[in-house]
Amino acid sequence: MPSADHDLGPQHLNVPSRSVVREPADRSPEHAEPSRFIPHVQGLRAIAVLAVVLYHFWPARFSGGYVGVDIFFVISGFLITAHLMRELTATGTVRLSQFWARRARRLLPASLLVLLFCALVAMSPYLTPTSALPNEVREILASTFYVENWYLALNSADYLNHAGDPTTVQHYWSLSLEEQFYVMWPLIMLLAAWLGIRFFRGARRRAVLIALGAVTIASFIFCVIFTITDPAPAYFVTFGRMWQFGVGAMVALIPALRIRNAIGSFVLGWAGVIVLLVVILRFDGQTPFPGYMAAIPTLAAAAVIAASNTERWWYPTRLLGIRPAQFVGDISYSLYLWHWPLIIIAPSVPFWGLTIYHRLALLALCFVLAWLTKRFVEDPARGWKVLTSRPARVTLWSSLAAMLVVAATAGLAWAVNAPTYNAGVRAIAELRENPPECFGAAVVLDASCAGTDFGTTILPAPGFAGVDRPSDEQCFVQLNDARPVSCEFGSDDPEAPRIALVGDSHAYQLLSTFQTMAEQNGWHLTTFFKGACPWNTTPLSTPGAFGEACSEWRAGVTEALADADLDAVFTAAIATTPYSAAGYDSAHDAAVGGYRDAWSEVLDRGIPVITVVDNPVWETDPNKCLRTKDLSLCDGPRSELLVADDPLRDAASGLEGVTLLDFTDVFCDADTCAPVVGGANVYRDQDHLTVSFVDTLAPWYTAAISDALQERTTP
């Protein structure tokens, strides 16, 4: 995250320390040792924040822009280590309370302002879907107390693959991690300095260097291993990122790493800038990250910092110091804070759209808000005499009080909307129990319902569609979990027909409906689900641990199915899964071949397979449109939302023993796809169906399975 510590960097870190007069121990002034501003580091900060912002606005074009956060970590490691080392050298210690108070005055006012804004937004059902409120409030609280990175890690958030429905404060993970760095780093340096004096003849600086070097190496090894074994939480875990701060620290502590030679500085600086630009444009969500690949942008950022010569205008150190780069670097902290909440909120604003003009206008608004926050919040807060003229503990207690105000506001957002949330949840339960006549898919598929008009009815309401999902989450494995977890539902009668439901999240979205079908028809239902991992033998193109976990899960499922006494298997999958094309003419052909190969394991035993063409995939959750616009304005073009060559359709075509269901005409007409069909709200997010809508397809799922069972038992 972009630290607000713009003035902590010395121009030359190996100059002799000047003698200082100790400030009273109970005061909290800025550090007495003078610090010098480094323009090209501020320009590097501009590259970092623009990379992150542009990535969030246009993830397909700036697919590696997430490395901007890694650049910030290197910058912070460089500046903070230099700052602490100056104080440690000049005074023999680091006054921790004063250090933390300075960080609080620099970072918390703008941070808590944006969190307060997000908490107020959470109160409004027009800007925040009520179904998302519990998670929004939890993450605001986690961000307020700077543990958001751990909250996301423990909840298996997948930052690079945009899994789930992100909150307005998800980007606070990096601020949380950096605040944890501010707590741990000076403690490590103080301990190392004490050991240097106590056991190594006063070699304080050398002891600090060795300690930080050891932390850096250990953290990098941990990061590489953890990214391989569990990449989603590895992105957020604190110790897996400490090495990036450590790289910046090494540049600050080792004079030989700062290149002042003209040619060397020119080559090193431009090489770093070019590598960063290539990474921003070429890395993507499939890059194994952070891991060893994070070393590329990390070392490139360190190279730019280390290039210290500023003699010629064409040197990167000079070009990064031009006024526009300095301006963006100055507002980088507030720009980072504001841009993400506005991106999340914008689609819910009435009359707002997602055109290029809307995005550019929103981007401009981010810059305006960032400048205003810098000018009227960040800068004044640093010099508030009511805090700087008093003991450091006054700043720290005031910070805690401000954090409690934000937390209370978030709690108020929940309290205000909790009755509505609970009523909405009850309404969904009632809808599932007693749906209206001709509701949902029946309008299209049941001839007796033709012409039924539900008008503007939308059930469940757009603000609650997000919670209309299967509840048995223990049956759904995600990310790098390779266990072939199975769940059992329905009849326990040994003679009951045994049905298996297998696939990715587009199979899991059918679970609640299939549970009801099993209970009503006397079937025994066995399930196997893994997120983003269809039942297919072709490897995913996703590299690293996730792709390996998918292959391992499939092998386990195949073994489990081979040992199971089944009468039919139903499978579904998202059509946009990225498959490896190895051995085939195209990834599509590879997917088709993989489905047929997987199905052959049960088809060869005379067990029928039923599958279904995938539903449309929207660019963004259509409920955002439904909450703010007329229903007729929320349709989407069929050509953009449907995959023309769904590999499931082609795999099932002409294959004996396989039944293909195609509900495309329910979702779409010849030109457009609708988010509401027969009064039923079809989607709970951009590509998953609500349980209420899936229930309306139950008669046709039931008929297909019953027919397959009948054919199997018929001689």
UniProtKB/TrEMBL annotation:
Q: Which UniProt keywords apply?
A: Acyltransferase, Membrane, Transferase, Transmembrane, Transmembrane helix
Q: Which positions fall inside the SGNH domain? A: 485-699
Where are the compositionally biased (Basic and acidic residues) regions? 20-33
- Residues of the region (Disordered) are 1-33
> Which domain of life does the protein's organism represent?
Bacteria
Pfam families, sorted: Acyl_transf_3, SGNH
List, in alphabetical order, the Gene Ontology terms for molecular function in this entry: acyltransferase activity
Residue ranges crossing the lipid bilayer per the database entry? 64-85, 106-127, 182-200, 207-228, 234-254, 266-283, 289-310, 331-350, 356-373, 394-416
Q: Where is the Acyltransferase domain?
A: 42-373
Cross-referenced PANTHER family: ACETYLTRANSFERASE, ACYL_TRANSF_3 DOMAIN-CONTAINING PROTEIN
Name of protein = Acyltransferase family protein
Organism expressing this protein natively: Microbacterium lacus
